[in-house]
Design brief:
Elements: H1 8-20, H2 31-46, H3 53-74
Helix pairs in contact: 1-2, 2-3
Length: 76
């Protein structure tokens, strides 16, 4: 990311870490929080031109995991 740019994902992630601690897991957060995190991840990976390709690749792994956990938790 550009040095002075913070996508909404960064602020949301920080809020989750504040609420759950630095070692939070996707299984520990609430379902609506997980959905919101998935939306922020998807926006950063799929739409945000200021997120670098390397960051998109790394965040893409987290996005896939979030979608997997969301699917498991919602049964679909």
């Amino acid at each position: 990311m550009h040095e002075d740019y913070r996508p909404p994902l960064a602020d949301y992630w920080d809020a989750l870490e504040t609420r759950y601690g630095a070692g939070f897991t996707l299984d520990a957060i609430g379902l609506e929080e997980l959905r919101e995190l998935e939306r922020h991840l998807a926006a950063a990976v799929e739409q945000d031109p200021r997120v670098t390709p390397v960051e998109k690749a790394n965040l893409g792994m987290v996005l896939r995991h979030a979608r997997s956990v969301l699917q498991r938790r919602t049964g679909g």
